[in-house]
């Protein structure tokens, strides 16, 4: 009974926290990811492994899958989580917790003390801005592909985090997947996000 109550408490805290402060089974983990070595690699461009570079990313929201391509062939397939309202269509405005759909590119890599590492996409594009304007809203921004909160750094909670949509509109992957993306993705790589 105690185990069940502990699990339910963790689930409750996780959903309340969303993309906020990382939590682990009801306990807040305030320890940030170390970013010094990561930032050093980014500054020199030494994080890229040329033989593993990809030239395209394709996401299918309904499948909760992200695919990487090199020369027209699938290199990797990863499970993803979406925004909390990921099933409610295309992103319209800031704060709607939807994951956008459309054609973008990777514009920045970030060593993230809260969510491991992230790849920022070029959202919003012109169509996103027009759609938001038509709804009297602002489109928001800072949409990324990112890793897991610190409490799940080793992946022990991947089955849980990947079976729920919990981000603010981003796409979350396991840290193992982010490690593969990190060495393969350069700024400018196109990404298509499909419904």
Q: What does the model show?
A:
With 195 residues, the chain is α+β, with helices and mostly antiparallel strands. It has 5 helices and 10 strands. Strands 5-4-3-10-6-7-8-9 form an 8-stranded mixed sheet. A hairpin with a 3-residue loop joins strand 6 (102-112) and strand 7 (116-121). Mean pLDDT is 88; it is low at 1-26.
Which descriptors apply to this entry?
single chain, 195 residues, alpha+beta, eight-stranded mixed β-sheet, two-stranded antiparallel sheet, 5 helices, 25% helix
Category from helices, strands and their pairing = alpha+beta
Low-confidence stretches: 1-26
How many runs of DSSP E, i.e. beta strands?
Answer: 10
- How confident overall, as mean pLDDT? 88
**Element-by-element helix/strand order:** HEEHEEEEEHEHEHE
Number of helices: 5
Main sheet record? 8 strands, mixed
**Helix content bin:** 10-25%
Beta-strand proportion: 25-35%
Rounded to an integer in angstroms, the radius of gyration calculated over CA atoms is 17 Å
